[in-house]
Amino acid sequence: MNNSTSLITIFISMVIINNLILTKFLGLCPFFGVSKKLSNALSMGAAVTLVMVIASLATSIIYNYILIPYKVEFMNIIIYILVIASLVQIVELTIKRTNLILYNALGIYLPLITTNCAVLGITLINANNNFSVLQSVISGLGGGLGFTLMLLIMSGIRERLELADAPSSMRGLPAAFIVAALLALAFMGFSGLL
Amino acid sequence: MEIEKVKPIKKFWQEFKKGFVITNPVFVLVLGLCPTLAVTSSIDNALGMGIGVIFVLLGSNIIISLIRRFTPPIVRIPVFIVVIASFVTILSLVFEAFIPPLYEALGIYLALIVVNCIILGRAEAFASKNTVFYSIADALGIGMGFTLSLFIVSFLREILGTGKLTVFGLNLFSIPVLSQLPLSFFIMPPGAFLVLGLLLALFRWLGVLKNE
Amino acid sequence: MLKVNNKNNKKFNIDKLLKGKAYPLIFLSLIVLVSVVLLMYVNSITKAKIAAEKETQIIEQLKLIFPEMKDYKYNKDEYYEVYSSEDLIGYAFTAIGKGYGGDINILIGINNNFLIESINIISNTETPGLGTKITENFFTDQFKGLALEDVNLTKNGGKVDAITGATISSKAVVDAVREELIKKIELIKNKSN
Question: C152: domain range?
Answer without folding.
Answer: 66-192
